[in-house]
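We modelled the chain as a single entity of 209 amino acids. Its sequence is:
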Amino acid sequence: RRSWPWKLALAQDVGYGFFDLAFGAFSAVLIFLIAGNEFLLGLANSAGAAVAAIAGLIAGFLLRVKKKAYIAGMFFAPLGIFLFAWGQNVWGVLALILIYQSAMPFLTIATSKTMFDLIDYSSEPWQKKYHLFVEREAALGIGRIISLTLLYLLFTGQHQYEIARGWMVILAGIPFLVGVLHYGIVREKVITWKQTWIHIAGPVMRGRK
């Protein structure tokens, strides 16, 4: 029987699956329409990757001392996407690069850490935990199938540019929903940073006595 926090974690991955492919495709197309050539598109993607890498290092440190730092990704990542979808200009691209890319790692690192903590916290031996990874991949796949199916149905008609912008606005809400689910997991107090340390280090320390 799956615990309630694990079900919430799988719901997070459904959200990530719904988000990732569609966001990657639409953001590249919309940036290209603004930039006008492949070089500027590549420059924008490279700048975004650099910002995300730096933010990831900072987020990894801050989340160790301030577990609620994921809230930055929960609120500012949607803001960056919304400003990009609404503006559709150079300022919108800058918002996507600077706001979204700098905020999203706080959420993805926190949720990934909690996911693996939940797997580790399971009382089953590690040989019997592989199915949990399969469940996670299945949740991601379900989200992607739903997203791509809706996109296929929507993009068979006209006004595809407006649909792409509207879809980006919808995607802007996904990081917030993932953050809400993550809060639900943390509130359950089934897994916390302190409990994780006790679970891992406790048997080792007892064995040394």
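As a brief sanity check on the tokenised model: The chain is about 85% helix and 0% strand. The radius of gyration is 19 Å.
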